[in-house]
Amino acid sequence: MAETTPHSPNDARPTPAPRKRKRGRRIVLAVVLVPIYATLSAGAAEYIINDSGSRLAIANGEENAQKLVEGNCEKLEHIVVMGSTKGLKWDKKLWTWDEFLAFGADCISKHEEELKKRVEAIDSCDVSSIVYTSGTTGNPKGAMLM
Fold first, then answer.
1. Whole-number pLDDT of residue 30
2. In this structure, are residues 71 and 49 in contact, taking their beta carbons and an 8 Å threshold?
3. Is 54 exposed, middle or buried (CB count within 10 Å of its CB: 0-12, 13-18, 19+)?
């Protein structure tokens, strides 16, 4: 499944995952959520993405996605944009929200058994989120939440 999905269990990503019901099944993403405050500087956001090892980011609009594209986010492989990606140029994968949801639905149907194994492997001691400070006294610091 790792070759066909943009994330693997416990990967960090810098925005909350939507909890959504579709056809009576709950869509579950086994990832670590890393929210980034909209008021943070581009440098602080870049630091958080790199420090957390985020491989996927969800950006609210093209303007926020452009900041990610222009940043030096070493491990970032995917940007999902809530809106159009037409004005963006990046050498890695850009997704619209609808494309990302369609890809996820396709992966669920193709990898149902793997998904069940991953859900069963989730433990109450697994990190579910990393919340970073504003970084007013230096680089932001992350607090892991279980």
1. 58
2. yes
3. buried
Judge contact between 95 and 103, C-beta under 8 A: yes
CA 66, 39, 36, 145: dihedral to nearest 10 degrees? 180
Looking at the DSSP bridge assignments, the partners of residue 95 are 80
Q: How many residues does the chain have?
A: 146
- Per-residue model confidence as pLDDT tens digits over 5-56: 455 555 554 544 444 434 444 445 557 889 988 778 888 889 999 999 999 9
Rounded Cα distance, 29 and 95, in Å: 17
The whole-angstrom separation of Cα 73 and Cα 77 is 9
* Residue in the structure block whose two tokens are 């810098």: 14
Compute the Cα dihedral for 58, 50, 53, 12 and give only its sign. negative
Surface-to-core class of residue 107, CB atoms within 10 Å of its CB (0-12 exposed, 13-18 middle, 19+ buried): middle
- The pLDDT tens digits of the residues spanning 115-141 come to 888 888 888 888 888 999 877 788 888
**More confidently predicted of 59 and 119:** 59
Cβ-contact 1, 113 below 8 angstroms: no
